[in-house]
Design brief:
The chain is mainly beta and 136 residues long. It is built from no helices and nine strands. The protein is elongated. 18% of the residues are buried.
Length: 136
């Protein structure tokens, strides 16, 4: 299991998303009200780029004749056919036990300080001359 740093929490504020490619897999990382979730950027219906779809809320269970809207920012809608998925667990809203999108674990931690990388070049000494070789 490889871990990949995709950015800082300052870059991914609540309501924002970032689509990244990790190990050849397109993944959307979402900040939902301060919690982070990652889902595969592929709708299971016809492999549309799910993470470019609209993020919104949904209607909630209520008594007949009532209308209640909630879960703002937790639901993603496929841009091609409107299939909706819960970003917090990947399950579809219409059939959560049989249709879902792949999710990935997200951690928020202290970034280790990376030492600046210095570009180096091969050096040879020939007949008391120092020669630097640059291969591009």
């Amino acid at each position: 299991m490889a871990k990949h740093i995709i950015g800082s929490t300052r870059e991914l504020i609540p309501g924002q998303k970032k689509i990244v490619s990790l190990e050849g897999i397109s993944i959307g990382v979402f900040n939902v009200n301060g919690s982070y979730y990652a889902v595969k950027n592929s709708c299971p219906h016809q492999q549309a780029p799910l993470c470019v779809g609209k993020v919104s809320g949904t209607t909630l269970p209520t008594k007949p004749g009532e209308f209640k809207y909630g879960r703002e920012g937790e639901i993603i809608r496929c841009p091609w056919h409107g299939w909706e998925f819960d970003l917090t667990n990947g399950h579809s809203l219409f059939d959560p036990n049989r249709c879902w999108v792949k999710t990935y674990e997200v951690e928020v931690g202290q970034a280790e300080e990376e030492a600046p990388k210095l570009e180096t070049f091969p050096v040879d000494v020939e007949e008391e001359r120092v020669i630097v070789t640059i291969n591009r």
